[in-house]
Amino acid sequence: MKIEKLVIGCLGGLLIAFAAGGSYMHRNDGERISELESQLGALKKQEEKSDVDRRVSQQMEKIANGQQILAEERSREAIRQAEIAQAATLRSEADREKALRAQAAAEVSAEEAKNSYLMAEQQRQEADNQRRQAEHAKLVADTLSYTSLGRTLGTQSYTILLSGDKEIGNMLAYAAYLYTNNYGGDLYNPSVFQALIQAAGGRRSWAVHDSRITGIEISPKDGSMLSVGTYGEFFVNRIKGDQIRTSRLMDDKNYCFRDIYVTENGKSYAVSHTGHLVIANGSQTQIVYLENVSRPFSLEDMHDGRQLLIIGENSMALLDIATDKVISTRRLGFSVVCTSKRGNKPLLFDNHGRMHLVNGLDQVTSEKIPVPGQVSAYEYSQKDRLTAYGMADGTIWMIDGSGKAHKLVGHLSKVTKMRLYGKRLYSSSNDGKLLFWMTGDMQIKPITLFQSSSRLTDFTFSRNKDYILMGEKDGTISEYLISLPKIAQRIRQNVKRNFTQEEWEYYVGKGIPYMAVKSER
């Protein structure tokens, strides 16, 4: 029952719905038509838009296709470039490997070249060493040969000069100089030096004093030469050309001058055996009487030249140089026969084989003389550690730094003075000789620089050490050239021509290359 009512209800609902729908559809057909038209217009617009979109899509597709094609071409180009790059890489790798192999080969070649260079350099050095050794051996042989030739030519020159043939003698002397000097020989070798001084003829003499010259000194201030003599002569001498000009500071026979001393500023002192001291400052002179000093004969400076020790035969006095006043005097317990200096201190020698070093007037130390005989001259060089004792019999004892004594024989009578100048010793004597000794020789032999017929009493050097100036017993002052450069210059000026070929072969030798001796300047 209930089911039937339900079915009938449903069917009624459906009928009502259909009726409503039909009524509705009838009422809205016009609206539907408008709506459909509107929808149709919209569809057309949509279709048009879709057509535009389609065309755009087609265009985009074409563009995309074009881009794809371009991308493919680029891809292919990239692949091609990659292939090219890979090929280049492969070639580069091959080239690199080739370069590495070439580098390795080059390094091997370089090492080989270096080894070859080192070997060649070593061989060159060995060859150079052998060449230098050969050249040195030849030089030594040449040196020995040519220095020996120089000595031989010197001997010939000296003999020929003594015979009077100055032309050939001068030529031979200069040839001896050239061979000895150029090959490092010893120009002071007696055979050479004797010829040089003989050829130079560097001696000049002037009669200045009327009495025995007892002292000669060079003024440090102006280079003038001061001299004193036993007749009271106190002179200032200046050499001008070949002349000597003398000024007399004092000339009085009541005095007997025995020694002279000159200060750095040119003030000079002359001591007289009469017990007087004459002081000259410029042209002004004053005389100081020396009390309690008997027979003074020697002057030695002390304390860096500030004081002057005046020495008599058995007494001494000390003078202040600044005031020229005698400070004090002292009697001695011995007789003084000779004086000199050791370093900067006076050294006195007595007649009993002792010497006395004066440290001060009241400070005198004594010691035994280490050589036999009576000392008459003394010289000391602290720098070269040499001590020379000149003896009354003419012997000279030279003591070297080791204490070894060498006996030098050359003088025949009392040695009056000695001077060391480097390794060279100069000595004068009553025998009239001025001798020259090379103290470094194993066998010391003298060279006679000067021979006088009168006794040589004193000598000194010029300020430039080019000359020796000597005082003699007869009052003569002599000047002697000792500078080797000036000696060589003088000989060169004396050579007037070259050897002829015949002379060269006769005097020098046939196997010796010819050499000109005449200067073209």
Strands, helices and their partners?
Elements lengths: L1 H26 L1 H135 L2 H17 L7 H11 L2 E5 L5 E6 L6 E5 L3 E8 L2 E9 L5 E6 L5 E5 L3 E6 L2 E6 L8 E5 L4 E5 L3 E6 L4 E7 L4 E7 L2 E6 L3 E7 L2 E6 L6 E7 L4 E6 L4 E4 L5 E4 L6 E7 L2 E6 L3 E6 L7 E6 L4 E6 L5 E6 L3 E6 L2 H11 L6 H8 L13
Antiparallel strand pairs: 1-28, 2-3, 3-4, 4-5, 6-7, 7-8, 8-9, 10-11, 11-12, 12-13, 14-15, 15-16, 16-17, 18-19, 19-20, 20-21, 22-23, 23-24, 24-25, 26-27, 27-28
Characterise this structure.
This protein is of the alpha+beta class. It has a domain at 105-201 and 485-521. It has six helices and 28 strands. It has helices at residues 2-27, 29-163, 166-182, 190-200, 484-494, 501-508; strands at residues 203-207, 213-218, 225-229, 233-240, 243-251, 257-262, 268-272, 276-281, 284-289, 298-302, 307-311, 315-320, 325-331, 336-342, 345-350, 354-360, 363-368, 375-381, 386-391, 396-399, 405-408, 415-421, 424-429, 433-438, 446-451, 456-461, 467-472, 476-481. The strands form seven sheets. It has a four-stranded antiparallel β-sheet, with no helix packed on it. Strand 10 and strand 11 form a beta hairpin. Helix 2 (29-163) packs antiparallel against helix 3, helix 3 crosses helix 4 (190-200) and helix 4 crosses helix 5. The longest helix is centred in the N-terminal third of the chain and has 135 residues, at 29-163. The N and C termini lie far apart (177 Å). The model has no long low-confidence stretch (mean pLDDT 86).
